[in-house]
Amino acid sequence: MTEFGDVPEYLLTVEGLKTHFFSRSGVVKAVDGISYDVREGETLAIVGESGCGKSVGALSIMRLVSSPPGRIVDGRVLFDGADLLEVSESQMRTIRGNRIAMIFQEPMTSLNPVLTIGKQITESLELHLKMQGAEAQKRAVELLEMVGIPDAPSRLKQYPHQFSGGMRQRVMIAMAMSCNPRLLIADEPTTALDVTIQAQILELIKNLSAQLGTAVIIITHNLGVVARYADRVNVMYAGKIIERGTAIDIYENPQHPYTQGLLDSVPRLDEDRKRKLESIEGMPPDLMNLPAGCAFQPRCKYAIERCVEETPPLLTVGDGHTAACWVTAGSTSEVGA
Amino acid sequence: MTQMEERAPAPGQEVAPLLEVKDLKMHFPVTSGVILQRRVGDIKAVDGVSFTIRPGETLGLVGESGSGKTTVGRCIIQLNAPTSGEVWLDGVELTTAKGKQMRAMRRRMQMVFQDPYSSLNPRMSIGSIIGEPMLVHNITHGKNELQEQVAELLHVVGLNPSMADRYPHEFSGGQRQRIGIARAIAVRPEFIVADEPVSALDVSIQAQLINLLEDIQEQFNLTFLFIAHDLSVVRHMSENVAVMYLGKIMELADRNELYENPLHPYTRALLSAVPVPNPRVEAQRERIVLQGTIPSPMNAPSGCVFHTRCPIAVDDCKVVTPPLKEYAPGHWAACIKV
């Protein structure tokens, strides 16, 4: 195999990805020109609130956006030298679930309720690794043991409803890891779970990805969740990446007013209790009627005229740290220009 | 006000509590069979919970799903009739109150629900949703006065009074939760059970709602039972915090005590599992990852209900049910290893 023949600098490169949904009442620009890359073995967090396009962005990489109404209108997704948006559907099938695996937020709806767990795990083993019968069974048992499900042989014969939420998410992880993927996309993997179970699942993802050298994209709305796990963070708002940097950059030196607002608006256990939370006023914009200029400008306390007139691109504020803001990032780069 | 001889454990006793819950139990029967339903067991959703809340204070009730925290709230408001135990609100015992007296008490306590999508009737306008409790309790006279009051309430919760004619589907989750809050304060209650009021909302909207709850608490001198699973939010909102596990209170203390000096291993594990948005702190934090999941309340473990997941459990924990004991003034914990 030539898999390791010519290792690109980045495992995954997303360039100018635009995914729009076409409805009768207008075009929803769910993802509107995002670019980022994922290095081998690293953990990248994509953070944002509901409707910011973080899930659609991930589904676009996997070409799982239902069409119609959705359509990837522009961009490139380079993985292992190929543009995933250009390859044939049959080629995509050999990549999906094999080289790139995904786990979803709601483990109940992403498992098939009428098939046993064993059937669902061996399916991808048979499909991608051409395993059969006893061999696949044996591997399935190993996988369940790897994700910490006790009594694996008998659990394989059970159905999803016989598993708790945390156990179902473990099954999802076992399925995702079954073909040793190079990239794992975890879309809000712990949102539906209790905090003690959340800790178990996140530690499991971290340990497995370190052990197998898998790169992870973890999508979440909770900035706290990723502080422990992410190497780098992309913050999204209204279909765009508005800040990008290392975890330390984003948490200690946030530059975009939205990132600052997100960090200020959560009560946190590592700081003294504040008398009042500093909330971000207003609501996320309607993606069908985006405000002029910067999408965050109507809620932003620093907004100036330029924010309405011109959409800010990602401007460099530090080494590998960029923010899309005329006020906080623009001042430094304007001086240079 | 009725003077009560024996008091349930609670921190500080100078001010008479507004709410007192004594040994509250809610067991749901589990039946088997279609026609002849045999009782095959009980789900002990709440199993002997006692606490008090003083006027104007907030008690935070935290626990994982299935710990019984919502059922405690529902039993207090009398949406469920508890199996046993007493609930005293300002000197009136609610589980035995009937008729006129109960009706009068219902006005004084309200609930804000978790899911802003299912707790508003989709066929009623916002105005009638907020106005209905005032009509039910006869605290408004005439149509004009009602409209004025609805407008005032919408204003208090930060919505435009002109929205009164709109329907729930026209509002976002955060706005719906504001409507739920307006409905709860419409009858000028003294006590509010807020059951996970912000957990369905986005982070930036959560902060708005938390601030709103604090504002109305001050403005209307409200007493809160704040039910949540998010320990950071609970610390922000509450003066006192009770930690529940499988229908029992594991630890009860004032906020600073509980967060700075947790005694119960479950509280410690919960606190260590809360993610903190600070990579440097996270890198150094020791995380107690609990094994397994919360057992079914239908066959709760013997002895201490937490022993199956407890990192420091000893043999005695399987046999001895630890009582809630006061280890420091106002700091109660149910663990024999403390």
Features:
heterodimer, A: 337 residues, alpha/beta, eight-stranded mixed β-sheet, four-stranded antiparallel β-sheet, 12 helices, 32% helix, globular, B: 338 residues, Rossmann fold, 10 helices, 12 strands, 23% strand, disordered N terminus
Q: How would you portray this structure in words?
A:
The complex is a heterodimer of chains A (337) and B (338). By secondary structure, chain A is α/β, with parallel strands linked by helices. Chain A contains twelve helices and twelve strands. An eight-stranded mixed beta sheet of chain A has the order 6-7-8-3-9-10-12-11, sandwiched between helices. Chain A has a four-stranded antiparallel beta sheet with strand order 2-1-4-5. In chain A, strand 1 and strand 2 form a beta hairpin. In chain A, helix 4 packs across helix 6 and helix 6 runs parallel beside helix 7. Chain B is of the alpha/beta class and 338 residues long. Chain B has a single domain, classed as Rossmann fold. Classes of the chains: A alpha/beta (337), B alpha/beta (338). Chains A and B meet through helix 7, helix 8, helix 9 and helix 10 of A and helix 6, helix 7, helix 9 and helix 10 of B.
